[in-house]
Amino acid sequence: MTGWSCRFTPGSFRNHNDGVLHRFGRDKGADIPTRTDYVRALKPLLDAVGSKASLTIILFILDETACARELAPLAGHYPALRLGPPWWFHDAPEGMRRFREQVTETAGFFNTIGFNDDTRAFLSIPARPDVAHRIDTGFPACMVADHRLDEDEAHELAHALTYGLVKKAYRL
User: Fold this and answer.
1) Fewest CB within 10 angstroms: 52, 94, 136, 160, which?
2) pLDDT tens-digit profile of 60-87?
3) What pLDDT does 1 receive?
4) How distant, in Å, are the alpha carbons of 49, 51, 72, 128, 165 from that of 108?
5) What CATH number is attached to the domain comprising 36?
6) What is the domain range of residue 20?
């Protein structure tokens, strides 16, 4: 498996509202996050390919409570595993900020992929990446203000979070 990337969005109860489903069809909303046991569920996959740096497995997070407890330690340990951006219910400024605060200390910056978007909501396309980039560059800026990161390191990190990591994750 040389040079492959795959992405998963586990933990969603799709089309939960039957009325919305029948009226508008599939994928029109009412997708609700469910509790997920990532540690046990991912073990067979990570046993097989988690140590292969030639593969990138990207997890998009729906269950915010699992970020610090399960996902950040897994991403910090397995070379193939990366955390995708906070998704659906957490792709708002405070959700994005909580994601960065919950995963960075354990998984680091470089075991995340920054931001990418596959929204079908055409009008939100310019706004969502802009918000994500502001949050992802603001986090290292706060670390500079707290004297935990040098300004030049923050500039390099900001570029990685807003451009380089997603290109690397998808091998573009």
Assistant:
1) 94
2) 888 888 889 999 999 999 999 999 988 7
3) 46
4) 21, 17, 8, 23, 12
5) 3.20.20.140
6) 4-169
